Amino acid sequence: MSTVLIVGAGTMGHGIAQVAAATGDTVRLFDPLAGATERGLTKVRENLDQGVAKGKVTAESRDATLARLSGAVDLASGAAGADIVVEAIPERLELKVALFKELDVLTSAACVFATNTSSLSIAKIAAGSAHPERVIGTHFFNPVHLMALLEIVVHEGTSADVLARVQAWGKQLGKDAIVVRDFPGFASSRLGVCLGMEAIRMVEQGVASPEDIDKAMVQGYRHPVGPLRLSDLVGLDVRMAIGEYLAKELGNPAFEPPALMRKMVAEGRLGKKAGRGFYDWP
């Protein structure tokens, strides 16, 4: 088992922390925003309590998971002795580059640097590190404790040893991992965002309601969730930023955010986290 530091205690960060602790790792969660680490730890406890209430998690397993999970007071203490660091901070290249530069001097030479980015270049993130061979993409999916897929993304400089270690870690976490080359959008985001943008254009054009467009994909193509509901879950602002990035990097207008999406983001209709997007989220 490993000692794992998760940087970023939001939706993805606390989810990764929960799964790692549940499968035996010693996990430290750190977020520089005031109160965010505590909120992340509280959310993990709530998730586990819900699992116990539904009979999907035993009380003993919940308690053991929480015993292996703690909050770090700062980045240095969290990184001390870490075997793996997973960053789940906002999707801004400069923030990720700066974090890994800082981690260069806080971790051992054997520590793996993993980024949970869903679309940014792993090579560009790694370029700022003194140890680019230790940088790899680990794209988890929301909610982390329920979604089986782990998209492992390697850039040209990622070492074979780091890839093997992350594949073994993913197996420990109970994830079904795929390995993808470092290319804009990887596999999942490139396909998913393209579908989501087209679904938004269909709403914009009055082709059908959001509910019926989603139903077409769920019942017709066996998707577990429709593209518009998924956009609400991810956050329209997050998906819009990814779409803009992919449209530029790939030179493909299919990824360009529709006017309706831009309008909704400007109005604060960001999806579930805001209480309203294509659906109402009480």
Biggest sheet details:
8 strands, mixed
Strand content: 5-15%
Distance between the termini: 40 Å
Number of β-strand runs: 8
Give me a quick take on this structure:
The protein is 48% helix and 13% strand. The chain is of the alpha/beta class and 282 residues long.
Report on this model:
The protein has 282 residues and is α/β, with parallel strands linked by helices. The protein has two domains: 3-181, NAD(P)-binding Rossmann-like Domain (Rossmann fold); 191-274, N-(1-d-carboxylethyl)-l-norvaline Dehydrogenase, domain 2. It has twelve helices and eight strands. The protein has an eight-stranded mixed β-sheet with strand order 3-2-1-4-5-6-7-8, with helices on both faces. It is globular. The protein starts with a strand and ends in a 16-residue tail after the last helix.
Please give the structural blueprint:
Blueprint: E1 3-7, H1 11-22, E2 26-30, H2 36-53, H3 59-67, E3 69-71, H4 75-79, E4 84-87, H5 93-104, E5 112-115, H6 122-127, E6 135-139, E7 149-154, H7 160-172, E8 176-181, H8 188-204, H9 210-221, H10 227-234, H11 236-250, H12 259-266
Parallel strand pairs: 1-2, 1-4, 2-3, 4-5, 5-6, 7-8
Antiparallel strand pairs: 6-7
Helix pairs in contact: 1-2, 8-10, 8-11
